[in-house]
């Protein structure tokens, strides 16, 4: 219990350093092939004004990704190739003055990691969209592959397709609590949302 309390205090300390500088919006957009959908997402981003926006399941090919444009967010990192499935996008607010040092992604469009500086502070953003099947195994392997990149300044966002608690579960999902929580504990990661919102229940809106 004491160890968990120390972990939460450490998380609060880290977040106190990061939060005043940036805000992050994460959305599973469930395909951006429709012009109307692109417009609505761009409008939502402009309304909320996030420093960094993590989008999952864009379903955009490498060529189509250039059509995703948001005024004020010129720098957009993508992870996709030639298929209309999965897909990751990270629009970054121009005023954030983000300077990327390391960028990693997979060809299937399931994750994108950017490591760099925001106002002279190190930060690593990992945006992932786990496959519908085998999500816990995918996440465990991904965290293992990126273990040298993950540190106390890392924020992992996305759609894990694997609930950690009953509150995170939709009607058709099973709770892989033991597998996922064990993976998080091994990597010394904390689920920030559940730390601050212990009873709130929000799912993706398509």
Report on this model:
By secondary structure, the protein is an alpha/beta fold. 28% of the residues lie in helices and 25% in strands. The chain has five helices and eight strands, in the order αβαββββββαβαα. The chain has a four-stranded mixed beta sheet with strand order 1-2-4-3, with no helix packed on it. The chain has a four-stranded mixed beta sheet with strand order 5-6-7-8, with no helix packed on it. α2 links the parallel β1 and β2 (52-56). Mean pLDDT is 78; it is low at 1-20.
Observed structural traits:
4-stranded mixed β-sheet, alpha/beta, 206 residues, disordered N terminus, single chain
Give the topology, please:
Elements: H1 2-18, E1 24-28, H2 35-48, E2 52-56, E3 75-79, E4 88-92, E5 98-105, E6 111-118, E7 121-129, H3 135-145, E8 154-159, H4 177-186, H5 192-196
Parallel strand pairs: 1-2, 7-8
Antiparallel strand pairs: 2-4, 3-4, 5-6, 6-7
Short overview:
With 206 residues, the chain is α/β, with parallel strands linked by helices. It has helices at 2-18, 35-48, 135-145, 177-186, 192-196, and strands at 24-28, 52-56, 75-79, 88-92, 98-105, 111-118, 121-129, 154-159.
